[in-house]
Amino acid sequence: MAAEIHSRPQTARPVLLNKIEGHSDAVNAAVLIPKEDGVITVSEDRTIRVWLKRDSGQYWPSIYHTVSSPCSCMSYHHDSRRIFIGQDNGAVVEFLISEDFNKMNHVKTYPAHQNRVSDMIFSLESEWVVSTGHDKSVSWMCTQSGSMLGRHYFTAWASCLQYDHETQHAFVGDYSGQITLLKLEKQTYSTITTLKGHEGSVGALWWDPIQRLLFSGASDHSVIMWDIGGRKGRTLLLQGHQSQWYQYQLSLGIDSAPQWLDSDSCQKCEQPFFWNIKQMWDTKTLGLRQHHCRKCGKAVCGKCSSKRSTFPVMGFEFPVRICDACFETIKEEDRTPLATFHEGKHNIAHMDMDPSRGLMVTCGSDRIVKIWDMTQVVGCSLATGFSPR
């Protein structure tokens, strides 16, 4: 299912233009070729395929290349026509695609990881390939020499990656729900900070180098915006899917989420929470469970937050816990949805968009690649995820 976050309700919908079939296993990544009617796909069936649109309107593979291990991810640089493929065996393979997109030559194989490569980015500015893997590490390698420059290990699988080419900072999401910010250099690195906010494994990251904003999507069904450049501690929480978020492209226009406050007792009725032994003893009462109001962020008990409401202006398209006081302040127009949902009719594991042409490609575990006309919804915030079953 795909979702769009708008500043106002919209009626325009994506239009399915083409379906590409032929893979014998899940398609893990698909990218649109800029300025060409073409798509590049990599799959668990160990194939790398370049699909070009023929005069008949159908897409046919102009390149069909098989590698030694299932393909888990890719990074394609169009200006240099260099493509990097992450594999299940931990290797990263570099190819050079010909100008007519009918031939692909092997360049190098990088021993990046000891286990499946989960994500990867090629930086032409650094001449580095930065990758994450299921061996709980992030590695960066020189594309000129093919040598390993550095590696950092985490306590959990490193699941996704973003990289700032200008400052050589890497953002790494992992299965514990944390995002680690690293400053990468030749032969060394430094850990800048760890971002904690998700309650499930981080599945996708997207970095906006202009506004210096990081977006993270996780298995807790939420997307969080992290204000990296502003240094104001501003965050934005979006909850629109009922299942895991996998990839997204987002723009702003929604109020920042409040910080959750800590307290030993309910900030409304002042009853103690269950860990507040002293107050429970003094008042001869049982401790209560702590909750948080999604509108004001206060720590409250269940009795003082018995209401539920949608609140799209803060990203909550489904009912969430609201304290009784805040519930009274929410007007009916505040509940007007800002997101529209469009059934993609397949489980979407990866997406890529070309805003200049208004095209989007999606792929997933059903082995089908779909190309969509997004000209009526370009400029909107987009997110994809598995549809609930």
TrEMBL record:
Set out the biological process GO terms recorded for this chain's protein.
Answer: positive regulation of toll-like receptor 3 signaling pathway; positive regulation of toll-like receptor 4 signaling pathway
In its keyword annotation, does this UniProt entry include Ligase? no
Please provide, in alphabetical order, the Gene Ontology terms of the cellular component aspect for this entry: early endosome
- What highest taxon heads this organism's lineage? Eukaryota
Q: Where in the cell is it found?
A: Early endosome
Instruction: Kindly state which keywords UniProt assigns to this record, in alphabetical order.
Output: Endosome, Metal-binding, Repeat, WD repeat, Zinc, Zinc-finger
> What's one Pfam family the UniProt record gives for this protein?
WD40
Q: Where are the WD repeats?
A: 20-51, 195-228, 341-374
GO MF terms listed in the record are: zinc ion binding
Predominant location of this chain?
other
Q: Which residues form the FYVE-type domain?
A: 260-331
Q: Which InterPro entries match?
A: WD40/YVTN_repeat-like_dom_sf, WD40_PAC1, WD40_repeat_CS, WD40_repeat_dom_sf, WD40_rpt, WDFY1/WDFY2, Znf_FYVE, Znf_FYVE-rel
UniProt cross-references to PANTHER family, sorted A to Z: LD41958P, WD REPEAT AND FYVE DOMAIN-CONTAINING PROTEIN 1
Q: What is this protein's record name?
A: WD repeat and FYVE domain containing 1
